[in-house]
Amino acid sequence: MAAVTNINTDQYALLALKDHITHNPNNLLAKNWSRSTFVCNWIGVTCGVRHQRVMALNMSDFGLTGTIPPQLGNLTFLTLVDIKNNSFHGSLPEEFARLRRLKFIDFTSNNFSTEIPSWLASLPKLQHLILNQNSFKGTIPPFLGNISSLQELRLMDNKLSGGVPKELGRIPRDIGNLTFAIALAIGYNNLTGEIPYEIGNLQNLQLLRIQNSNLVGIVPPSIFNISTLREVALANNKLSGGIPSSIDIGLPNLEGLFLPNNNLSGIIPTSISNLSNLVELELGSNSFSGEEDSMTKTLTLATIGYMAPEYGSEGIVSARSDVYSFGILMMETFTRKKPTDNMFVEGISMKCWVEEALPHAVTQVADADLLLGDDDQENFNSNKDCILSILELAVNCSVDLAEKRIINITNVLATLKHIRAKVQKNVRTA
């Protein structure tokens, strides 16, 4: 016969946790977690209205040091536990397996150094498992793929080794493992091997991050067919293969694609320019084909709205296209507008908007805060001249025809230094 539990059970469990705290800044718990006050009024504790039992424990950013006692396994109504940004260490007690209602676990930025505990497989309602920035060791356990309710798995920046379990993407006939997963972030570990093709079975996935590991092999083509994906981050591995020409069809919702520092090859497909939601694209330090003397081998800014026209027609990342992107960034900085803003529609781009305003209507496009300064008329005129010079440089950097564009970023820097010197001279003589 199971023991009867009540709010007193919850109080004893939390007082046991308090006893396991060895460092408590400002005596936060000592002042608040007291037998003389109702447990549901304790800081970090939330109780349910109906049963008056502890449902949530949020101790994030408390600056605590200590261990987790087994008594916490008696908080049987608990649905959320968040202890991120503390210094908890030691083992995670197997009594947690009793917490059958638990949906959310966030242990980010603590000092846990054990293997990922097997009792996690006993939590039938677990939806969010976030264990980033600890020292968890061992392999990513395959049993995580059997938690069918799991929507978010984040294990980044630990000391995990081994491969990526195929079970994370395997769909059994009855209920499909991780069918509901929307986020898989397991980068910054010591992983090895290949990305399993089965990852492509996670058809609800919105975020995939497996960067800064030691993964090899071809990027599974199945990844490029997960239509719900918004971000793919596989940077700093040893992955090979290419980007499919149908990426715009397979990933219509993509907002960020981060693939730098791999061994990818082939032509960068022009269809990338059809990804209307794409905001960030990083492809540098790969082996994409193109003119050998013009290919950039370093990290490259290639963002929709910032990309040079020749990128869309040739699929080539070059030094000239970097200058174009820098010109657009200067416009963004001094107008406080983005090329993706809603005002730039129906053929009116930010570049055209700025170009048409120069030189006489520069005040209509410049950031008003930069123009006004200290509300002094003389400063206003000086600021206007400075912004005009910078925006004229930005327009020259972003000329549509690459051969007419300033091709050397050194020239751009020299011009900016000249503009700065002129401003400083005006300030001294004012």
| Helix/strand class | alpha/beta
Average of pLDDT: 84
Distance between the termini: 88 Å
Shape: globular
Number of beta strands: 20
Percent range of helical residues: 10-25%
* Gyration radius, in Å: 28 Å
> Regions with pLDDT < 50 over 5+ consecutive residues?
171-176, 291-302
Topology order in helix (H) and strand (E) letters? HEHEEEEEEEEEEEEEEEHEEEEHHHHHHH
Approximate strand percentage: 5-15%
Q: What does the main sheet amount to?
A: 11 strands, mixed
Strand order of the largest sheet: 2-3-5-7-8-9-11-13-15-17-19
Structure annotation, total helices:
10
Family: Belongs to the RLP family.
GO cellular component, one term: membrane
Protein name: Leucine-rich repeat-containing N-terminal plant-type domain-containing protein
InterPro entries: DNA_repair-toleration (IPR053211), Kinase-like_dom_sf (IPR011009), Leu-rich_rpt (IPR001611), LRR_dom_sf (IPR032675), LRR_N_plant-typ (IPR013210), Ser-Thr/Tyr_kinase_cat_dom (IPR001245)
